[in-house]
Amino acid sequence: MADKRDGSTTLPGKKAQSSIELLITLSFGLIILLPLVVLAFVQISNSTSTLSSTEAQAVVGNIAGVATTVGSQGFPAKQLVLVDMPQNVKDIYIGNLNGTVGHEIVIVVYTNAGASYVTAYTPVNVSGDLGSITAQGTYLLNVSAQSACPSEPSIPCVYIAAT
Prior knowledge:
Layout: E1 2-3, E2 9-10, H1 14-73, E3 78-85, E4 89-95, E5 102-111, E6 114-129, E7 137-146, E8 157-162
Parallel strand pairs: 6-8
Antiparallel strand pairs: 1-2, 3-7, 4-5, 5-6, 7-8
């Protein structure tokens, strides 16, 4: 045993034993915390997907409302609308999924579960091309009543395009 100046004695290896005990204790703590951190990241990712879908629902509802208003006024009614596109938007369809005149506005949002189709119905015929505004950001849209729809001239519709 080694004597210290204050009269206490320490056994050889006592400091090493304390270090190993501390290391083991910290390791168990990290083992317990690691799954919690992973779970938190998964929940944050799910929240982001849900938020994108919710924001997309607000956007399609806003566009559909303006299209209904403009369509009920008839040609030559026009209105500009400002929309905030959420992140993870893949496609935007106006009319039908095949690009013809219809009654739907569809935003395809990628989530953790795959593609989510966020849809709003309009009582008026709608057509348009918003494929260029899938990136996250704020966009100005031109919503105008047409006596002859550009995609099908025999049908009146509300045409929606990015400005």
